[in-house]
Fold each of these.
Amino acid sequence: MTALANLTSGWRARIAGSDARLLPQARLSGPMPWVIAIMVALTVIAAASGLALRNAASAARAGVEGGVTVQVVNADPAERGRQAQEALRLLSGENDVASAHMVPQSELDRLLEPWLGAHVGDEVDALPIPALIDVRMKGVVSAGRLEELRKRLAGASPSARIDAQSEWLAPVFGTIQALQWLAGALIAMLAAATAAAVLLASRNALGANRGTIEVVHMLGGTDAQIARIVQRSMGFDAAAGGLAGLLLGLVALLFLARQFAALESGAVMAGALGWSDWAIVALVPVAGVVLAVVTARITVLRALRRIL
Amino acid sequence: MTQPADAEIVQFDNVGLRYGTGKEVLTDISFTLYPGSFYFLTGASGAGKTSLLKLLYLAQRPSRGLIRMFGTDAITLPRNRLPGFRRRLGVVFQDFRLVPHLSAFDNVALPLRVAGVSEREIAGAVTDMLDWVGLGDRQHARPATLSGGEQQRVAIARAVIGRPDMLVADEPTGNVDPDMAVKLLRLFEALNRLGTTVVVATHDIHLIRQVPESLIMRLDKGRLSDPTGALRYPPRRAARPASPPLPGIVGQ
């Protein structure tokens, strides 16, 4: 704690000029850099998590956005095949269908193998496996368009059931969105806690230096001059704390990234942060400094208004 | 000095002061201070000298009455204009009010730094001023390591270094030996000759006798007596010889 405080007081002496000498800087500093470091580290983790969730959700949504699955459910294999071919022909003729293909039996077998064992479709005719058609639409499939396709298929392929793939993942998207909101709320609460810590530290600095502040006032010092001393001190503390917090947060993120990478899941890998995301994470300590400076200034100016 | 030579620098009209809901510590105070005059404020302990000085250096607003300062109503003065007025005042506090974490040099430099004077100008002026008050070798000493008399000299140096329009000093020689008291009084006189109005609160009758042309303000139980009428109708002053340059005073 002492090392970080010494570091910040060294900056102050070099950068702040003569104003900084008006109030004893050690009394302004204290544990503030570490409080801000912890807040920034937590904010960095929350922000990175929120961004990773957004990326994962975007990638998943892009994958299923135009996806439509048609199942032809009929116990008679011949009739099932006929209706499936009819449905494929009809869908391929639609203008907004980018592609439509029958999912091969081998693929169906592979999908079912974990539950029903190998060669289910070949050997057990008594177990009717639906024929599947994978359709890619041009753009997002609206509920209206889906209903329209359902009606058109009803004539040619009465056993066909049509579903948008995004519907299956709706609960997952809902959960991801809730987690994103949670990350945002955490960031807001951390910002409020940082502002409260700065407010208390600023009031403490004013209380501890009241005598000096009165003398500076009596000598013609303005409220802005006194506020500048405190806000500058808080700014330095926030800069040092922000840098330390950013490093702490990055270490935590690297650790988490390694753990998730070990899962080798496509959905998790899609959540990887891009350059713009890292830039946002890097701006967290900058936002912390701005928040600390503005809070200190407002607190000091409001408090000084009560002194003649 | 921005006002005409004969314009009043301070005018009190029926001023009263009470702290909280207590009884008035100053009652019906009326007087006028003119530029370039030298005033002694006397009175027994508890007569209200310090309270009157607080009104003069704008640390307190009165409970009633009118105060005009530098031609402006000081009671309704907006808060953001107070610093400008205070920079025209030099104040020697009874308890010195030196900033404990600053050296003697930095304490004396404080009003200049507040006013935005360059560090180069400050360095020369402060060193000269500290030399003049006999503290040239204690520039880097903190107040806690200075004697009472040395602290008082630092406080006086801080009050006069900006060449104020009005100097207000509360018992400024109470802690120094008689020789230094006279020397400091000469500093006040020299400053006064440069046009600064000086108000010194003191018990010391010998000090008052050192400035025969001074005017006396006597406070008794919160009331100001002006038996000769000199405060309300000051005698016209003869032209005085110009003061030699003062050491360390900025803006001569």
Amino acid sequence: MNFSKLALIGLLLTSSLTAAEPIRLTTDGGTKSDLAFTAKGDEIVFTSLDLPTLLTLKRLKLADKTIDRLHPSATTSEYESTHTPDDGMYAFIQSRGNLNMRLVIRETKTGKENVFDPSGGFSSIRRPTFHPSGERVAFAIPAATGQEIASVNKEGKDRKQVASGGINSWPTYSPDGKKIAFCSSRDGDFDLYVANADGSNPKRVIKLAGMQSHPAWSPDSQRIAFASNHGDNYDLYVVNVDGTHLKQLTNHPERDDYPAWHPDGKRIVFVGERKGKLDLYLMVVD
Amino acid sequence: MFHAGQFRSRLHSSMSRRSFLTAAGSLPFAMGSALSTPNTPPEYGEAKAKSVLVLWLWGAPSHIDSFDPKPNAAPEVRGPFGTIPTKVTGLRFTELFPKMAAQADRFALIRSMQNQDGDHLKAGSIGLTGMLDGKEGKAPNFGSVVARVRGGRELPGFVSVGRGIPRDVVGLMKGYGGGNWGRTHDPFMVNCAENGETDVPSLKLLDGLSPDVLTDRRSLLAGLDKLQRTADKAEAAKWDASTRRAYALLTAPEARKALVLTDEKESLRDAYGHTSFGQSCLLARRLVEAGVPYIQVNWSQYVEAITPNCDFGWDTHIAQFDLLPDRHAPILDRAYSALMDDLHERGLLKTTLVVAMGEFGRTPRINGQASRDHWPQCYFSIWAGAGVRGGQVIGDSDKTGSSPLTEPITPGMAGATMLDLAGVSSAKRAELGVLGGTRVIHELF
């Protein structure tokens, strides 16, 4: 890494830790979602609408804010990537056919792929999350009971149910690997739940008016950031895993969504809508 | 910025510059396409709606997850979304549409729409023509009827804003244009990207003219001269009516101006949202302002929600409860409410009828993919402007949103209402052979 990049990182770190207002990281204003930190926090991979017909995975390097496509030759939509802490593997959803998706689990260095293919015909699978051990990937998938959280091993086999009842979505394993957070409509609207990593002992973290979505764990596995339209508009909130100390992180008349916690535990990146444009923003959390 | 597109073919060698312009000027479309015949005075009664603007929610949004929620139904019907109050006492929408909820006093909501078919292409044609394809073939789009009766001299009478002819992965929707009346009654098609750049797809047939030379008539003539010198007869066939009328449109300053969104204040463009649909709605308002009598904004070209090479329509057989809060609902909520504000503030809402609808609804019961399938038996449409009494709900659906409890409102009735407000009287409709045996939705007024 050259000096200029180090200087940029330093500037970003310093300014972000003292700035009251979120720092804008991208400027194109295009549709973005589903953020994930990689490279030990130096990069962010996100889903981007590149063409009216194509979602792609993009990588933002925080040092110089350059953006490139994770898979430059991909010709079908790919979205919602999740990465192991050592970046040895990652998984993402691939649009395969007419209203048909599959889960791709890929070794970063070799490109070797394993696939979990739910079925032919209309078939959905969304929001994968890699267990920090790198051994399993959980996701949201339709089931007889609505939409469940299930997991497969890194070979894309050995499917196990993790959570069911109502519509369950946006699973995310805690960094210590012990818990899984997700949102579920099992008690009515979408609320935030936490269970053991195998799905046992699910508990609603907090009951708020409006829907909660897109949970993201703090690196110490003690807090969860999430998006909610609790105040009529999507903003970011954070709450302890036991449901205490709820705090609103953003309060903007436009949408703030898709939080991702930086590995240093001090910053969150999210998608903010400002003047009708969607960009990545970085903010400090207490 | 207005882009005339990538021109790939050449001008017919036998067509002189002057004759081209003469020909273009004499085409029905050229001076007001999908249009009335030039020199024929407009024949229409008193039009309450100077313009009709249809927001075509192609792919069919769920009525239950939007404007006809069933919070007391069983979980497999009600879905995961909560409801919120609106500006109209007692009226609730799902939580996905807060901006529209805040404007509910401005529009009328019909909850008893019913289509006759559950197939996208057939239902879409019915939705936009009011008629089944019968022995006589394809019926004309409502816009083609309005344009035929009210086509102007400078601007197209029917503009379709979107990426192309509405379709699904199987084929094209027949009811997009003139039907049996022929291609001259098809809409003038304009695409609008999320950055507000517009282009005219039919101009992509021709090589050699850059957008920059289309700024005035003189430079257009020079460009055509150059094209003639390199003309290729084999390509001449592509120089069809739609291309000629597209070029002719560009010679009309008023029309060209209407297509340039950069003339708008940045804050207004922001308000609509920097999405293709949002900017298309803004373009539609500019076309209203310019005097185009019928505009159809297509949500997408394809119905499919998530399919390779498709552009995220409302056909959410899968991932319904992800797609709606992530993408579809916020885009519609923002664009529609900005359009209402904009039309209202400019005093245009009194003379502009705005109708938002899809071709049908979606199944009350959540399917095996945790989503919803096609449901033509019951769906919604939203009406505003041109004398429509806002803040009211017309019709009612049963406790699961399966069927209307009141008289079903059909696409034919919707069409008759649009045409009537646009000044195409029942007598004129009978003369043209369209939308017989149906009625205007008087409850709207």
